[in-house]
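Allow me, if you will, to draw on your knowledge of protein folds for a short while. I am sending you one protein, given as its amino acid sequence and as whole-number tokens for its backbone shapes. Kindly check, if you would, that the fold set down in the tokens agrees with what the sequence suggests. The record follows directly beneath this note:
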Amino acid sequence: MAEIRYCLNASTIRPVPLLEKIRIAAETGYAAIELWSNELGEFQEGGGALTTVRQALEDGGLAVPTVIALFGWLGTEGEEHRRALDEAKRKLEQAAAVGAERMIASPPRDPVDLSRAGEQYRELLELGEQFGVWPAMEYLGFVRSVYQIAQAWEIVQAAEHPQATIVMDPFHILRGGSPLEEIEQVPGERVAIWHWNDIPDTKPVGELTDADRVMPGDGVAPLEEIAQRAKRTGYRGYVSLELFNAQWWERDPRETARVGLERLRQTFPAE
């Protein structure tokens, strides 16, 4: 990873049709776009071909750092686990078709037995190897299974796989109560991507939901410190604007994308 590059997560302008999202990301100056597997599936169900999506990405000069997301692979057993892996194969194949490098692997909402988490994550990585798409371990601050950096990093290490990586995100760091010092426990080359956003002061941090995320610079998250710590790890990859904010969804999506890119540059400068 040679330099910081800026990415638009498709969730940030969610109401917009898929191909239009790709055009907007390209036209407003992003280097990449993160896509969602459910949106790719809906595009296919509506008669669209993933080759069309791939062509639109190539036309716009956009990379796809990740597709989101894989579920059910962690903490499950037996038939439930087999079904989760079958679904993972479908999604990984889909991600490969649009040229994605990685696919985000999300933890379950409820507590599960994590004693085999490293083994199950490695199993997912070996599955991804078949498609050339590497699953990246995500922690989610509002779940009760894997909600802190240290937990996710322990799973990544336990997997003992060279392509095992973690997804970083200010919202989930603060929501899950991870000490900021934990950011620097993960080498930059083991971070798949930095999602980027801010948090408001309108409610306690422990009550925040995805919908509460605000544009970087509009909230109270210590983004400057987080970015500095990320850079000290040697991270030089994609920083992706990820919002689920209805107020921004209601605005002109090009304005949202333009403002977002400006805020990315201000709060996570490439230098």
